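Q: Two folds, back to back.
A: First:
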Amino acid sequence: MILDIIKEKIGNISVSAGDKSYTLDMLKLRRVKLDMRERSCLFNFAFPVFPDDGLRDKILSVVREACPPYFKIRLKIDRDYLDLRGAQDLFVGFLSGFQALSAAISPKEQVFGVSEDGFCVELRLSEETEKLVESSRFAEKFADFVSGYTNYKIALKRIVKPSDIDFDERVKELEEKRDLNISAQLSLPSRKIKLESVKELIGRAIDTPPKYILDVRAGEELTIVCGKVHNPTTYRPREKDFVLCKFDLQDFSGEIPCVYFAKDENNLKKFLSVYDGDEIVVRGKTTVSNFTKCEQITAYQISRCKIAADEDGNSFVSRPPCAKYMVVEPEPYIEPNQIDLLAATNKPPEFFLNNTVVVFDFETTGLRVLEDKIIEIGAVKMIDGEIKESFSTLINPQKKIDARITDLTGISDEMVENAPTIQQVMGDFYKFCFGSVMVAHNLEFDYGFLRYFAKPSGYLFDNKKLDTLELSRQLFAQDRFRGEEPGKFTLDVLTKYFEIPLDNAHRSLCDAAATAHLLKKLLEKDPELI
């Protein structure tokens, strides 16, 4: 970090003021404001006293050395002073970034005072609000924020008031009602979708009315569904006589992954004529993916079609997100490596100027979608090629976490005990991702879990999607990059290859941020990759 560089270059000198002295260990970096348009960068520090011009010039010189030469560096050093009102404003401002908590903790439940070594905030919480505080890791984040912002101490004390409402029972009741509704819906006779026209593409034209994707059952020998195509891709396995064609199919009721094995060039050309957003009808068999262990359709007949609106007037319109976040509130993203933050190009690849990008990663209890659960969500939002927001929460899987998963991720049963369930946060994650391009490394795995666990809540993540694993393979398959291959295409190997920090691998937010930097590196090497 830039603070470490300043101390290394200048030394931990002391500044005297009256009968007190202050060392550079007490220098705080409050914010870095980067203006790509003006090619300027403002560093806002805080120190217990105003430094003299000599020390200020030394700090400015070190910061300039750490930044790209074409940036204009500006320096602002505030006096690190805090009174009770200032501590109150600091806490209230930080709390406002957690919308659900801000709504749950009224001003009457916040009591501010002075302690022996600083200030204290006493929060009087209901049991439900205490669970929100635990699941959002609010206390830890506030402590980190304060230690990075000021040398004053602000202690947080929580007093939990008994609640007449049993939160767990209420959640259980709502989930039971949801399960009953889903069961009732699934028990209905198979519903059909009307097609206005059908044209043959691969095999004969399919003239049988397709069913709703929501009504598809595992193990069906004959399944006919229709919908819009999303994310069509092809892959030619080594020493195989076919090309594996993958795509997602979405109708009014849901989404399902599909695969087609093109065994001759003629059918491969026909599949390659299908683009994102095209409407098709598919005949095939419901199988279980060997990789994600979730349901998919193995297609052997594909026709183009025009889908009529269903009887209820449903159409291919994304469900609007909720007006506000309910459980997990996104937070401004602070790049842990300040040098990395500043090593920016004058203009990001064109793709970032035209798209908002959400890069996400899940930690899970295992690899099988039908048996395992999500235990952590981490995501970052990129605007104009820079990470601006983060979305992070532990998830209560409602099952025991295996010791090997704890060893790999560091996530234990105790850590997720008071965390929200996946259904409780799915609406917030949908809101965070709405309208963006979604990116993951090894997308098939993470999106397989997302699709499966979003289905009961009725959320369709129909965003455009990209896989940095596939993009990496495509990049290094080009002749001009022959001999530069990293060997493997795992996130760990690729981050080392591109010199991207990955200090806390197998934690979702760290992996998501590293994947975001990887996407940018790939597009800097080849802007035409997407």
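A: Second:
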Amino acid sequence: MNPEIIEIGLDLLATLDKDFLIRELKGRMVTNHSVNAEIVKSKNFFEVFRTDITTEGIKEYFAAERLWKGAISYESDLKFYFLGTISPAGDDGYIASLIETGEITGCENAGLVKNLLSNFEGHQVFFWCRKSFEDSGSTIMISEGVREFTGYSPKEITSLAGNLFYLIHKDDLQRVIKEINDYKTNKLPGTLRLCYRMMRKDGTCLWVEEIIKAKRDSSGAFTAFSGTVYNIDPIKSAELLLNDERELLSVQNASKDRFINILSHDLRGPYTSILGFAEILLNETTLPVNEKNEYLSYIYDASKSQLQFINYLLDWSRLKTGKLKLEPQRIPVKALIYNAVSSLTGNAIRKNIEISVDIMGELFVQADERLMNQVLINLLNNAIKFSHENGRIEVTANIFNNKQVEFVVKDHGIGMAPEDQIKLFTFEKTFSRDGTKGEKGSGFGLTLVKEIIDKHNGEIWFYSEEHSGTEFHFTLPVPTNLVIIVQDDLILNGQLTEIIKSGYPDFTVLSYTNTFEAIEEVENRSPNLLVLNHELPLMTAKKFLNSLKSDSNYKFPVIIIGAPDEAEVNELYAHDGADYIFDKKFEIKEFNRVLKIILK
């Protein structure tokens, strides 16, 4: 082993031979005469310094290619405690690196040593010494601790092009080299502290802090360098996370300020005209009736627009803060669209606008019905507002992928200019203009629409061309495929469940014997299929169907099992919405055929 050992900012650095006899001691503890280097030379390290490990124990660590770390004490007039590492240095010796943690007088303190040991076990550090940075072959020593950092052994690192420089992340390398060159060129006093990312053998990286100390000759020229490298990844990661959060909060704060400015302007603006017209009505008592009605109409429209704006704002705020909770359920797309269209039929008739609806099959979505009704009404209302008289609006719904349904609301109206399109979906650039017949709007509706769609994990986008029209697209998730069985015969219940699960593994099967629980579940989730036994606890299947909400607009296939083989009974069930009725002779083969039709 190379006998040249330099002081690297450690409190004590010991070179040991292969029998752990002390060859040389360096460091502040020697300089300050707390440890007498001459007295302890040639003595066994474990006789001079007390540790919780033996010579044989250390050899077991090295045989397993592991670095030993632990608590070490030295006693002269005072008792000094160190955190230390011992690692192999070539084939003929070892290096012990010690950092002082304090001194204790008066008595042994085994508890302190144990505490130091437990603290040090989680502390990663390694050391290196080299004669220069220019010559990679000038490396004197790299401690075994580097293996825990990088996965490379000291020998592997010395064979890499650039040695330890090879491990510096490429985005940090030039900065680190510049700081080292500045340190050398300017002959800066003291130590150089570096912070950078170190690459591991497995391709991952960690943040480290490196403290470099230089040794100079009598002329001030550098003769050697040494470094202590610490793993600061947990601290640095927390710092970066904190910086990101601080930056996010800064952006949010700026957005909040802009929002308040816009909000105060939008809330205050309409009241100028409202107060102006109200003042005229109060002061001009001789105005003609038609003129009074005109002014009252202005006041009414402006107030209505402001109320809509405030309602949108409140809903948007509640969604943002989580105070407005989604209540998603299985909703038939057809009912959702037709409900929205029917609520705006009057608006469309006034402009003689045709609204066509095209829905592919029986589609369902998992969504909050009230909020999605608000989305469709908002988009349809905009389409009517910006369409010309005698125009046409198309509403379509289709499968987007196996997890989503796509809705499209398309008009052939005035469209939007490119500079206006970038103002949509954000409160920071609210955009409002009058409709083709002077209809007013809040400019905030689409911001709320996007927030609702986002909360449903959907997406919304649009295409628009000035003078040609606009089409809005959005997606919603499809619900889980579900079959609900209400059957008090446990054996038959098990048979039906097994048939459905084995034949249709993508479907979830829920079985109930409690009819009231089943009614609530059916109303909340609207299954793909409902299977009912004719005779149920406390009620018949007919009463069960009649107990479902009459205004729910849910429509799903219903199978009745065990009904009397009577035409009158079949007619009654058909009237209540049952699609297939099986008598008490119930045949599995026929049941499978019906399942294939319904759950195809």
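Q: And?
A: The chain is about 40% helix and 25% strand.
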